[in-house]
Amino acid sequence: MNNQSYEERKRQTIIYNAMVNQDLKLAGSLASQYEQMYPTSKPHSKNGDSIVEVEHTLLKKLCHKR
To answer: At what angle do helices 24-37 and 51-63 cross, to 10 degrees?
Structure first.
């Protein structure tokens, strides 16, 4: 059985769909939610190494793609 919670799987599925479909509106919405939910200054983080930081970076890059 997968150890991921329902919320983690749901979040990853939404992000995957935004990336695959190049959904700029959804990516923008998710990126702003990430900024509110996960502060960018985490002392234990090194160069954006957490999964959440990587996801946030991908969403921001997709938002800026035209």
So the answer is: 140
